[in-house]
Amino acid sequence: MAAVFTCCLGCCGDGGAGHAPLKEMPTVQLDTHHMGTDVVIVKSGRRICGTGACLANAPLHQNKSYFEFKIQSTGVWGIGVATQKVNLNQVPLGRDSHSLVLRHDGSIYHNNEEKNRLPANSLPQEGDIVGVTYDHVELNLYLNGKNMHCPASGIRGTVFPIVYVDDSAIIDCQFSDFYHTPPEGFEKILFEQQIF
């Protein structure tokens, strides 16, 4: 009996042989290694200001992802998805095949083509929450929890959430603890090791 007790203490106790500490799962946030040269990231990787774009630190590997952006201060801004090949110093995005974004004027651009547009009376204002769903085919947008019914598609490859700002815009990113409940079947972004 003493041998069993000793084994348990040796294996499970502090610093016992064979003890491997659990790794904490990383937090999805804006990635300071993938941002424009004049971008400023604050609030623990959740707020962007300055001029340029920034990718999130997690690609959208899962089937149905959801994330949100809060317009803290208006100006020129855009939100959506992009590959790592996107030019993070060029705003507005959506000019090439590497980004699919909602722009501040309500247009959704990809490859320099307007793919869709928010309804005229639904342009996001200061304080509004824009939700984004992405299922590897379509990007859909939600304004303060309401589906805007303006899907857009066309981007290919591994994509990441992206946000850009200019002209005094300030945007906060929510990758968990959402303001609004994600649409059915959609969930927060998971790192690849969380999926398996």
UniProtKB/TrEMBL annotation:
Pfam families given in the database record: SPRY (PF00622)
SUPFAM superfamilies: Concanavalin A-like lectins/glucanases
Domain B30.2/SPRY: 1-184
Name the record gives this protein: SPRY domain-containing protein 7
